[in-house]
Design brief:
Blueprint (H helix, E strand, L loop, with lengths): L20 H27 L4 E5 L5 E9 L3 E2 L4 E8 L10 E7 L7 E4 L1 E4 L2 E6 L5 E11 L2 E12 L3
Amino acid sequence: MTKQSPSIVKNDGLGRKGMNPATLMTLLVIPALLLGAGWVFWQQLQDTPAREVGILAPPYGIISVRFSTEPFPATTSGPVQMILLMQAGGGSTVNLDRVTYSYNSPSNGEPIEAEATQIARNTYQGILSFDTIGDWQVTITIENDGNINEGTVTIPVKPPI
């Protein structure tokens, strides 16, 4: 019969006390912070209006128009650059006769109208100027082959920080 030696137990510093308090706090605080940040991000997504609209433009069919502003969110502090990215089905290039836009304040004042400038393939640019905070309606009008069609997006305008 062979004798077995007793196994050696390592002392990892935990003993009967359990987990180190700093480690325990870290394991509780970090997930709570991540959850809180995720919740704030989700709320911002929910509060942001749709920034894409489909506009019928023969012969391309429905063109997807993605709308972005710089700065985002738009503010009342000065001119806001608007970029319109136009994409036909399958990502094909669109050659449009004319792209215009108009926008008016939440109090439904007189609309401001302007023509967008093509700055790259499928990309148009315009300048917006907001004098009040709130949700502004921007109507994008596409003229092509004698057809005129439009779509509207809502732009949240915030006070300058």
